[in-house]
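Structure ticket #2291
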Amino acid sequence: MTEAEVLQELDAIRDESDRILDLFEKHCVPHAKVPEARELFRTLKEKLEAEYKRMATVKCDVALSEVEAHFHKPAIEDAWANTGISSVRRNSRPDHRWHDALWSVRDYVAHWSSDLRSSGKF
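Resolution: structure written out below.
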């Protein structure tokens, strides 16, 4: 992946997190918006898990570009493993666990994309 592709991917994850967070009202999603929230959450979880698994292989490390190895991989690892999103059930009622995990995903991804933008290395 190029720098632009990594930034595009990280921005998409941040935007998806924001879309779900925007459905919350006082740390809870209104009943009418729960199906939409669950679908968006399922899609985001699947995307993060697939990327995490793809980059977790030893073979993959060799195939990663420098920008992927330094920014994309750690961003995905943080978003999947350090936020708690992996343990939040997709079919559960959107609550504070969802909100906290999504907020953390958003923060990690924003941090890594900001670091990439300011690095000037690529």
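Closing remark: The mean pLDDT is 92.
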